[in-house]
Amino acid sequence: MEATIALRLPRDAASVPLIRQLLDGTLRSLGVEPQVRDDIELMLTEACSNVIKHAGPSDDYTVSASVHDHLCVIKVIDTGGGFDPRELLDPEPGAEEGRGMQIMRALADDVRFTNRREHGAVVCLEKRLRYAPGAAGRHLMAT
Prior knowledge:
This protein is an alpha+beta fold. It has helices spanning 15-30, 34-54, 100-107, 136-140, and strands spanning 2-10, 60-68, 71-78, 110-115, 121-128.
């Protein structure tokens, strides 16, 4: 079994808590361990926040998340001008901004950035899931 959600959201800060709560509720009902859910929530927040801050001039973006077996795959897709992740500078120690990419790379098991020149960017985050003993997801997702 595979569980998938996808939303097209306005490029507005109010959209971030909505998708975060929706995904967390899904993972919680499957029995994903709290620490893994927290990591996913932070990765998702950083990816969505980057779109909201940097993906002009588009008015919306798409978030899809799928869970299959022991893997969660999140894609955050914008229709802005795109970016080259190799050109991003590491923030200074103690900097308040510019740490989103580092956070995503630290928490995700795999991170991929696809630049679609002048058609936006795709950030793909993968996280291996751990389920609580007896969790529904352990049995449902393995079938």
